[in-house]
Amino acid sequence: MDLIIVQVLTLLGLLVSCLAFSLIPLALARRASRASTLSSGLRSRFLSNVNSFVGGVFFATCFLHLLPEVREDLETSLRGYGIVTDYPVAEAVSCAGFFIVHLVEGLTHRCLPHDHGPPQDVPSRERQPHSTAGEDDPTRPLIRNEAKVMDYGANNPSANAQNTAVSHDSSVVSSDSSSASAGRNVQTFLLLIALSVHGIFEGVAIGVQSSQSSLLSLFFVVVVHKSIIALSLGVNVATGDMSLPYKVMTCVVFSLSGPVGQGIGLLVTDADAGGLVTGILQGVATGTLLHVTFMEVLSKEMKTSDMLNTLSAVIGFALIAGLTLLPE
């Protein structure tokens, strides 16, 4: 079979596999949300364990796959320019990517509209004296009879003030929830960028292969790796607050990254051209994924002493560690 035909078939296979695995969590989450038999506590625990597994996958991907690849690419590129150094260039570029992402998130958070909490003059429930059963409690008609709420509130300014405070607290909660939702969407967008950049470079690696044997062996390893990452991204997107069309669009964009990179690789005539730029971009992508792994996933799921979460993270790490043993 002609090499170009094999390239096209592997391109389609990479697209279909990534798209399928990224959409599976969306379908499962949509089905679980309709199921009334699954309690919210059990669903939350399940998602926590799955997120821990995702954190383990990202953890291993950063240190066992991305970072060694960045180090090798940068050393080869610098050697081509006659530069030989013991300085950890790959690690420095990855750390720079980490801080770039953290800076972008910090600036985004400052630009988001959010409230800092209720005013200081709003009385809290802890400060209000509790009346005894024998005392005349003006709030008792609110509890005993809903029909008296309007009449009593109209003649009692303190009750109106309490209702206003409750309404203000509700608006504060709504504002904080909206800010948290927007921040989560930004994190998902950053994760999409990191994984898509890496997916493009993996696709380029497949596209520049000149023999069918090396092409198929590399395709097998990449498609397994990207399918697991696609599944992890799908879980992250499924637990977010975006609408369903945006969730599907996120999965489609990531699924297209590999085939786009493979198409670029097919058009590349000199495989060494732009090696330094490629290595730098890979390092920045590694730093982005490090930020997501430690600041967003593991920092939330590994705070508790839940051994099941720890076991899930170890399983995710072991899965990528096992795949790393496969020949390149």
Automatic annotation (TrEMBL):
<dbReference type="GO" id="GO:0016324">
    <property type="term" value="C:apical plasma membrane"/>
</dbReference>
<feature type="region of interest" description="Disordered">
    <location>
        <begin position="114"/>
        <end position="142"/>
    </location>
</feature>
<keyword id="KW-1133">Transmembrane helix</keyword>
<feature type="transmembrane region" description="Helical">
    <location>
        <begin position="53"/>
        <end position="70"/>
    </location>
</feature>
<dbReference type="GO" id="GO:0005385">
    <property type="term" value="F:zinc ion transmembrane transporter activity"/>
</dbReference>
<dbReference type="InterPro" id="IPR003689">
    <property type="entry name" value="ZIP"/>
</dbReference>
<keyword id="KW-0472">Membrane</keyword>
<feature type="compositionally biased region" description="Basic and acidic residues">
    <location>
        <begin position="114"/>
        <end position="129"/>
    </location>
</feature>
<dbReference type="Pfam" id="PF02535">
    <property type="entry name" value="Zip"/>
</dbReference>
<keyword id="KW-0812">Transmembrane</keyword>
<feature type="transmembrane region" description="Helical">
    <location>
        <begin position="214"/>
        <end position="236"/>
    </location>
</feature>
<protein>
    <recommendedName>
        <fullName>Zinc transporter ZIP3</fullName>
    </recommendedName>
</protein>
<feature type="compositionally biased region" description="Low complexity">
    <location>
        <begin position="165"/>
        <end position="180"/>
    </location>
</feature>
<feature type="transmembrane region" description="Helical">
    <location>
        <begin position="189"/>
        <end position="208"/>
    </location>
</feature>
<feature type="transmembrane region" description="Helical">
    <location>
        <begin position="274"/>
        <end position="295"/>
    </location>
</feature>
<keyword id="KW-0406">Ion transport</keyword>
<feature type="region of interest" description="Disordered">
    <location>
        <begin position="158"/>
        <end position="180"/>
    </location>
</feature>
<keyword id="KW-0862">Zinc</keyword>
<keyword id="KW-0813">Transport</keyword>
<feature type="transmembrane region" description="Helical">
    <location>
        <begin position="307"/>
        <end position="326"/>
    </location>
</feature>
<keyword id="KW-0864">Zinc transport</keyword>
<keyword id="KW-1003">Cell membrane</keyword>
